[in-house]
Automatic annotation (TrEMBL):
<dbReference type="InterPro" id="IPR036196">
    <property type="entry name" value="Ptyr_pPase_sf"/>
</dbReference>
<keyword id="KW-0059">Arsenical resistance</keyword>
<dbReference type="GO" id="GO:0046685">
    <property type="term" value="P:response to arsenic-containing substance"/>
</dbReference>
<dbReference type="InterPro" id="IPR023485">
    <property type="entry name" value="Ptyr_pPase"/>
</dbReference>
<feature type="domain" description="Phosphotyrosine protein phosphatase I">
    <location>
        <begin position="3"/>
        <end position="128"/>
    </location>
</feature>
<dbReference type="Pfam" id="PF01451">
    <property type="entry name" value="LMWPc"/>
</dbReference>
<protein>
    <submittedName>
        <fullName>Arsenate reductase</fullName>
    </submittedName>
</protein>
Length: 138
């Protein structure tokens, strides 16, 4: 059974949504991707939507929406996006923080940079799961 990964931040509108989309795109064979936050937003950040569409031809508006922590299934791995002290806590077998700055309200360049970092980190997460570096059996 594939592990479930939860990408978590406070608002679930930008970084965690990008991570969910890229997780599904690049890691769908290895893990299931979910995203959630502690506060809902009426819609996903449209700059994030445009960036992911431009770079990867994925339309997050079609498949994703802002979700609360209890809207997603129990996860094996928690990845917080970099919300410091306000980071929500969920029980998991492994957790890590990616320390990403929120690009909301910033330039397209910031959004593209954030997407590329998330892509690299998703691919690294795949590598660490496949190599057993992240042990989910304990």
């Amino acid at each position: 059974m594939k592990p479930k990964v939860g990408f978590i931040c406070v608002h679930n509108s930008c970084r965690s949504q990008m991570a969910e989309a890229l997780g599904k795109h690049f890691a769908g064979e290895v893990f299931e991707s979910y995203s959630a936050g502690t506060e809902l937003r009426p819609q996903i950040n449209q700059d994030a939507v445009r960036t992911i569409k431009d770079l990867y031809s994925i339309d997050m508006n079609e498949t994703q929406y802002s979700k609360l922590l209890n809207d997603i299934p129990e996860v094996d791995i928690i990845v917080t996006m970099g919300c410091n002290v306000a980071c929500p806590f969920l029980p998991s077998r492994h957790s890590e923080d990616w320390g990403l700055d929120d690009p909301s309200g910033k330039s397209d360049e910031e959004f593209i940079n954030t997407a590329k970092i998330i892509e690299e980190k998703v691919k690294d997460l795949v590598r660490r799961i496949e190599s057993g570096e992240i042990n989910l059996n304990s």
